[in-house]
Amino acid sequence: MDPMNIDTGLFISEVLTLTFGRAREEEERLRNKIRADHEKALEEAKEKLKKSREEIRAEIQTEKNKMMKHAWDNYRIYGWGHNELRPIARKGHSTNIFGSSQMGATIVDALDTLYIMGLLDEFRDGQKWIEDNLDFSVNSEVSVFEVNIRFIGGLLSAYYLSGEEIFKIKAVQLAEKLLPAFNTPTGIPWAMVNLKSGVGRNWGWASAGSSILAEFGTLHMEFVHLSYLTGDPVYYKKVMHIRKLLQKMDRPNGLYPNYLNPRTGRWGQYHTSVGGLGDSFYEYLLKAWLMSDKTDHEARKMYDDAIEAIEKHLIKKSRGGLTFIGEWKNGHLEKKMGHLACFAGGMFALGADGSRMDKAGHYLELGAEIAHTCHESYDRTALKLGPESFKFDGAVEAVAVRQAEKYYILRPEVIETYWYLWRFTHDPRYRRWGWEAALAIEKYCRVSGGFSGVKDVYSSTPTHDDVQQSFFLAETLKYLYLLFSGDDLLPLDHWVFNTEAHPLPVLHLSNTTLSGNPAVL
Ligand code: DMJ
Predict the structure, then answer these.
(1) pLDDT value of position 55
(2) Can you tell me the distance from the alpha carbon of 345 to that of 413, in angstroms, rounded to the nearest whole number?
(3) What's the 471 CA to ligand 1 centre distance in angstroms?
(4) Which one, of 163, 97, 104, 95, lies nearest residue 135 by Cα?
(5) How far apart are CA 268 and CA 261, in angstroms?
(6) Most buried of 56, 124, 384, 484 (most Cβ within 10 A)?
């Protein structure tokens, strides 16, 4: 057609009709889609409303306990009965703290977390294994401390939560096996004991054959509960004896050294830390008071005295304004803080109420400052997971320097502190920081066979250590879960968490002073 012959007006009107026609069709299509989507959403909402509260709760629950399911299910498949799991090799794993036999450490440590998360089939599965297999009459040398906090603590907690007698029975059987460890000239227990022969000894690496403060000083909660449940004062007497002995000793600068010789009753090396070797001793002084319904004033006094000395000599501010807890070694302060010491943020917050001279605000603030420093130690890494130990030296702040200190082994302490501070302040930053940590664990520690620690948090391509620690299920995942739950789940005025995150109830013992009278138990 000759373009010159076209009636231009007619052409334009045809083109417009066509264009607008298409646009109208498109609009109509869109409107229909919006209507359909809207209808669908309404239908879905109606469906949801038809569900019972329980069903909705279960759906939310499934989302919240996904990490636990992954850790547990893989242990169940590849490591069942072993102490821990190698998630990459997909087989069992153990270390010398659990001795040479398969004691199912992950099962016992994880029980209460499963229960709290509503994973009841898994809980029953664990219970069945314990009923059928957990046997303490084995020729195996175990760590008294680790077995106490993970096994006795875990079993007691499972008992209190579920009411199942078997857990109490097993806890008491195990405790009886630990008692020979106290047969030393001073009554300060050995670090290790053979469950069959009752022969005890100390770690070869500990200063001058010493026992460790954080080990013999972290028995009180579980042992008081054992006496309470059995009516047998023997456990109570053992831990009160340790307390009395410590009270009588001189403390350099008011600080407790980490090493004490169980033969001579003398301190070993003058090394004080709120991190490894010292940590949970201070925690248990405070928790002994809380657990006694705040009647064990002796424990509270020991805690207050210890914390004042720690604040005076070990807690400093870096040039960049970060509050950190250093370590005291032979009269000199090492400006280094371990991941383990990060639990102290939560401890300061927990101890704020009831502090001397009404310094509650001060201790809450101190707890928040430690939480901030520990968050920085995570934030200054490539993986957003914290190193085992970090320095404050010159330009270095909250960063690990030595290669051997750059690992993260799924430890809980930082998340534990976020949780306590969340409970006491409801400041949303703690949930934000906890969420960051959860995402980082998912991204870098999750493997198809479970969760693994990483060897260098500063390297963006992580190398896995191939260990799923039992405390990951007992503590890290429990504290994360609690951080995103309501305050009515395990309220802190009724429950006190042992150092392995196993909740034990406050004992309301009328007419009792837990500081001096075992007969009332
Ligand atoms: C846990 O076994 C306990 O929290 C203990 O008190 C110290 N460290 C580990 C986890 O890091």
Answers:
(1) 73
(2) 9
(3) 7
(4) 104
(5) 6
(6) 384
State in Å, rounded, how far the first CA of the chain is from the last one. Answer: 110
For the Cβ of 499 lying below 6 angstroms from any atom of ligand 1, the answer is yes
Which residue matches tokens 């970090």? 390
Give residue-wise pLDDT tens across range 375-390. Answer: 999 999 999 999 999 9
**In the block, which residue shows the tokens 């040039």?**
319
- Residues serving a catalytic function are 388
Contact partners, residue 472, CB within 8 Å, separation at least 6 = 71, 410, 412, 451
Which residues of the chain register pLDDT less than 70? 1-23, 42, 45-50, 57, 510-521
Contact 249, 237 (CB under 8 A): no
Please return the burial class of 396, using the count of CB atoms within 10 Å of its CB with bins 0-12, 13-18 and 19+. middle
The pTM of this model reads 0.89
Question: Which letter, b or e, does each residue of 374-385 get, where b requires 16 or more Cβ atoms within 10 Å of its Cβ?
Answer: bbbbbebbebbb
Q: Which of 281, 283, 311, 314 is nearest to 392 (CA)?
A: 314
Identify the CA nearest to 357 among candidates 296, 319, 308, 426. Answer: 308
CB 365 within 8 A of CB 345: no
Tokens of 170: 């097993």
Question: Is the CB–ligand 1 distance for residue 423 below 6 Å?
Answer: no
Q: Where are the beta strands (DSSP E) in 323-473?
A: 323-325, 327-329, 332-334, 336-338, 389-393, 396-399, 446-447, 450-451
CB-based contacts of 67, cutoff 8 Å, min separation 6: 438, 441, 442, 446, 451, 477, 480
Distance (Å) of CA 194 to CA 22, 99, 217: 86, 8, 20
What 3 state SS string does 150-184 have? HHHHHHHHHHHHHCCHHHHHHHHHHHHHHHHHHCC
Ligand 1 atom with least separation from CA of 501:
4
